[in-house]
Amino acid sequence: MHDRSDIARLLGLEGDVRVGFIESAALADNPLGDPASRAIPVYVPPGYDAQGSRRYPALYVLHGYTGDSLALISSRPWETNVFQWADRLVRERRMPPALIVLVDGFTRLGGSQYVDSVHNGRYATYVVRDVIADVDRRYRTIASEGGRAVLGKSSGGFGSMHLVLAHPGSFAAFASHSGDSYFRYAHPPAFATVQRVLEAHDFDIPAFVDGFERKHKRAPAEYTAMEMLAYAAAYSPRSAKAFDLDLPFERAGGELREDVFARWLAFDPAERVGAHRDALARLRLRYLDCGRRDEYNLDIGSRVVAQRIRELGLPVRHEEFDDDHRNVGYRYEISLPALAAVLDQE
Fold first, then answer.
1. CA diameter of the chain
2. Least packed by Cβ within 10 Å: which of 1, 6, 93, 226?
C-alpha cells in the first residue's frame, strides 16, 4: 500500500501527488541557460495502483506566464487549485478518474509559450515527446492520443491550442481558459509601454533582465516589458544568442514593425485555425472560455477563434462568464470533467 504524500495531505486530497523529474533533450543547452531538468507533479486519483491492471486517461495542464508547475498547486485560502478541483470532482463522481499532469514551461524571461524556439529551446517538443513519454513510462496511462487532453489558462491556453495545431495526434481534446489569441487586439496596446521602459535602459536587454531579476519589487511596466520580451523570444527570435530578439516596434521612435508583428501573427490561433482543419477535426472536444472583462481583450480572441472553427464546419464549446483575467481557476470545475468525459476509459 502506498502512503499518501505530504503534499496530498497538505492539500487535503483523497488521491495522491507524485513528483518525478526528467532530463529533457529538447531543452538542453538553451541560450538562456534554463534547466533541462524539470519536475513533473502528477495527481493520481483514489484507488490508483501502480501494480494494478487499470489504466487511466491523462490531462496535461500548462501554466500561464510567470508561472511554473508548482504555481499550479499553490494553496491559498478560499481558492481551489487544479489538483484540488480534480480530487473533488472525482470524489463527487462528477468526473471519471484521471491523472492530472503539470508541465513546467518556465524560462528566464517568464515563460516559453510552449513553442519551439531557437532562443528558448524546443518547448513544444519537450511536451509532446519528452514529458508524455516520461509520464507514459512512469504511470498506468492510456498511452495513446485518445487517452490524453491538454488544457491551460492564459499562455497555457495558448499553449494548448498551439500543441493540438502543431502536433496533431498527441492529444484528443483541448481546453483554453482565457488563452492568448487574436493578437491584433491582445498585444499592441502594450507596445508603447514596453518601448518606453526599454528606451530608458538604452535597449540593453541583458542589463534590463539582470536588473529585473535583482530587484525585490518590480513596477507593473517592468513586468509588461519582460512579458513582451518573452513573446519575442518565442515568436521573433533573431538568433540562438541570448537576448538577440526582433521586437515588434522600432527601438528609436516606437513605430510598429509590421514585418516582425507578422511573425507574431503566424503563431496566433485566430490566424492559424483556418489552415488546420484536419488537426482540429480529429479532436473530440474543442473548448474555449474567457471572462467578458478580460484586461487583454482575450474574450474577443476566444470569440474569433470559436467562430473561425465553426466556419470550418466543426463544433466548438465556447463560454463567456462575468470576470476578468485574474483568479479564474474555478473554471477547471467545467473543463476538467468535459475533457475527461471524451477520453478513452478502462
1. 65
2. 1
Mean pLDDT of 108-118: 98
- Total count of residues recorded for the chain: 346
**Angstrom distance (rounded) from CA 72 to CA 238:** 32
Residue 313 exposed, middle or buried by CB count within 10 Å (0-12, 13-18, 19+): exposed
What architecture is the 6-182+269-342 domain classified under in CATH?
Answer: 3-Layer(aba) Sandwich (3.40)
Per-residue pLDDT tens over the stretch 119-162: 999 999 999 999 999 999 999 999 999 999 999 999 999 999 99
Cα separation, 219 vs 3, in Å, equals 44
Enumerate residues 6+ apart whose C-beta is below 8 A from 86.
15, 43, 45, 59, 95, 98, 100, 332, 336
- Alpha carbons 127 and 181: distance in angstroms, whole number: 21
Q: What is the pLDDT of residue 71?
A: 87
C-alpha cell at 132: 508524455
End-to-end CA distance of the chain: 22
The whole-angstrom separation of Cα 301 and Cα 310 is 14
In the numeric block, which cell numbers belong to residue 268? 496566433
- Structural domain boundaries in the chain: 6-182+269-342, 185-265
Average pLDDT, stretch 72-87? 93
Output the nine-digit C-alpha cell for 310.
Answer: 465553426
